[in-house]
Amino acid sequence: MSPASLDRPLTLALSKGRIFDETLPLLADAGVHVTEDPESSRKLILPTSDPNLQIIIVRASDVPTYVQYGAADFGIAGKDVLYEHAAQHPGGLYQPIDLNIAKCRLCVAVREGFDYEAAVLQGSRLRIATKYVRAAREHFARKGVYVDLIKLYGSMELAPLVGLADAIVDLVSTGNTLKANHLVAVEDIVPISSRLIINQASLKTRAKALQPLIDAFARASAT
Ligand code: ATP
Ligand code: PRP
Predict the structure, then answer these.
(1) Nearest Cα to 20, choosing from 72, 76, 70, 63?
(2) For the CA of 79, the nearest ligand
(3) In angstroms, what is the span from residue 75 Cα to ligand 2's centroid?
(4) 110 shares its domain with 185
(5) Does one domain contain both 44 and 85?
(6) Which of 141, 156, 167, 180 has the most crowded Cβ, counting Cβ within 10 A?
(7) Tally of domains within the chain
(8) Does the residue 1 lie in any domain?
(9) Are 89 and 68 in contact (CB under 8 A)?
(10) Do β-strands 53-57 and 10-14 pair in parallel, antiparallel, or remain unpaired?
(11) pLDDT tens digits, 8-39
């Protein structure tokens, strides 16, 4: 994909919230500080203490797109997002490091009292609501369970409560959201954490500037 313009600072794509918050300590370990908070400043391009590094704030699911097209040299995205992105755009992203941040797991969850095992054994065709269509399709195909997938963009926990779906495939961390909505996790699909992703052209043309940051991220995430 197209290399980033060489006359702008290195550009790191992050999403607001937990990924931005959990990346700050990794940047600090690399000696880089971010003085503005995207929540309060509303800015989408943030300078850093390093004049050669800026941060752009994008939706979590858009991070791979900015990096793949070279609008950002590198970015941080969850394995969940990367897996869905790769279904549409195979190749093109170099993923050197698991940063071990934003850790959670992708699960199947149902309403309390719904006998999921029995439904699976009976061979019932299940309706599954999810944002993670590829991961869900592959999970149920591996199990040999017939499903109708309903794509949602958020608030998946609502779907079984209002009769939109029998089950959801969603991210779970503390389990508080499931509990608050009277849902239970019945299957773990895969553990999730966030990865550093790098534009392949930037890796070649801007290696000298990128490498110290990649090394610092690798060191910080290993501790
Ligand atoms: P978008 O704004 O594109 O819809 P999103 O709302 O999923 O994305 P975030 O909630 O900021 O964005 O999540 C960013 C990433 O953090 C997810 O892709 C996932 O890898 C991870 N994540 C999501 N929920 C949790 C959680 N409860 N605990 C830990 N990590 C999580
Ligand atoms: C994620 C996920 C769950 C929740 C699980 O939502 O979609 O709803 O976290 O976390 P828990 O097990 O610790 O309760 P998030 O907080 O990102 O909200 P959003 O997707 O609506 O932004």
Answers:
(1) 76
(2) 1
(3) 21
(4) yes
(5) yes
(6) 167
(7) 2
(8) no
(9) yes
(10) parallel
(11) 899 999 999 999 999 999 999 999 999 899 89
Amino acid at 81: V
What atom of ligand 2 comes closest to residue 172's alpha carbon? Answer: 12
Residues 68 and 168 grouped into a single domain? no
Whether 169 is in the pocket of ligand 2, judged by its Cβ within 6 Å, is: no
Residue 3, pLDDT score: 53
* C-alpha 172 to ligand 2 mean position (Å): 7
Find all residues with CB under 8 Å of 187, minimum gap 6, and list them.
107, 108, 116, 139
- pLDDT tens-digit series, residues 47-106: 999 999 999 999 999 999 999 999 999 999 999 999 999 988 887 788 879 999 999 999
Show the domain range for 84.
Answer: 10-102+193-222
Tell whether ligand 2 has an atom less than 6 A from the beta carbon of residue 171: yes
Q: How remote is the C-alpha of 213 from its chain's centroid?
A: 20
Radius of gyration of the CA atoms of the chain, in A: 19
Report residue 82 as tokens: 């990367």
Q: Which amino acid is at 131?
A: K
